[in-house]
Predict the structure.
Amino acid sequence: MQEATHKRRADSGKNAKAKGRLQMVLIFAIPAFAICLSYLMYFTGAFVPEGKTNKGQLILPPKSLAQMNLIHEGRLFSEKNLEGRWGIIVLGSKDCASKSCQDAMYQTRQAHIALGKETDRVVRTFVADEELAVTRGFQQEHPDIVWLKADKAGLLKELDLKEWSTGRYFIVDPLGNIMMGYDSAQHGGDLLKDLKRLLKASKIG
């Protein structure tokens, strides 16, 4: 009788330990699964309902900033130059004389300013397919921007564009992934909403 009671207690103790180990596994596994699922949804669009919240066009898979061969002051510009920040890339012409180019510069500047205390987490860049010839006055209107020259063929190939689309702009994450794009006619308020959402959710940048 005593042996049976002792055995039941031993079995009960083993079950309790096994249950405790299972609980510990679940405590660590559930958050890990949630993180993996969020990455799956972010990079593939899987399980995302049609009623999307982003205003820009999600680029899947994301494109690589490093593959665009952007040049800044004679040197290659890559994700390292972002210094852990998010980025806005504006496609423009060498003098940005067209309305679509100037509108994109204005809209992205206003969105950047509207970020308030989060402004320093985002850097603006302007990309031309020729040597820059913007006026000094225009540069003074956009003192915070990084001026870049692109390898046109490389950029078009990387972004899957058939032609240079002056006035289009994009969001790039701190790891150098170009992950969202906007048409030249799209209002900067859409960019602002997406940036706020990304900055709020981001653990990097």
